[in-house]
Amino acid sequence: MVKKNNKLCAYLAVAALIVAITVFSIKWPDKSKPLGNEYSCHVYNYDTFKLLSGALVDGVVPRVSFNPGNRFSDEFNFVYDEDSESYLIYETILGQDMYLCITSDQKLSLTSSSDDYGCRWNVMKVGNTMYYMIFSADTGDAIALENSLDAVLVPYDMENTDAYVRFQ
After folding, report:
1. Of 10, 47, 48, 109, which has the most beta carbons under 10 Å away?
2. Tens of pLDDT along 25-60?
3. Residue 133 CB contacts under 8 Å (≥ 6 apart), including other chains
4. pLDDT (tens digit, 9 = 90+) per residue, 134-160?
């Protein structure tokens, strides 16, 4: 009876090992889409909990910054673009979709056209944490918090915690 149980346990262990090898060797689809095809959320700096916000100053000049306080309710939408294999990130301001983009002088801005330069973004999960990095598909620079409120582009560096964000 003991031999039979040992043999059964050995078969179960081998079967579990085969299943584990099979699961870990599969190349999972959509690996490049950590947020799926569409995702809407608030974007916070990882340790200050300042909210990424977009606004039109004086109704004209687009501004992107991190803002403290609960009076801001900015929600960004991430839509995966199959052609560029990256995300379009936009916020609706005054009834119009304004896309997060990069200006010619490498500043964060908003634009009304998703076809403008710098409107493609990649999102990467930071290790086994709840944090992410958002970086430009065109330049490779990441969105980061600088000074007290400024949202800036910095060279991609996994060690730069100022570029870590969390989604809620």
Report:
1. 109
2. 554 555 567 888 899 999 999 888 899 998 888 767
3. 123, 124, 126, 142, 143, 156, 158, 163, 164, 165
4. 999 999 999 999 887 889 999 989 888
**Measured between alpha carbons, how far is 17 from 61 in angstroms, rounded to an integer?**
59
Q: Read off the pTM.
A: 0.78
Residue 102 in tokens: 């990069």
Q: Rounded to 5 degrees, what are φ and ψ at 150? A: -70, 135
Assess contact for 101 and 89: CB atoms under 8 A.
no
Q: Phi and psi for 126 in degrees, rounded to 5?
A: -90, 100
8 Å CB contact between 141 and 135: yes
Strand partners, 55: 63
What does the alpha-carbon distance between residue 113 and residue 119 come to, in Å, rounded to a whole number? 9
Q: Note whether 2 and 55 are within 8 A (CB).
A: no
Q: How many CB atoms lie within 10 A of CB 98?
A: 21
In the predicted structure, residue 5 carries a pLDDT above the cut 90 = no
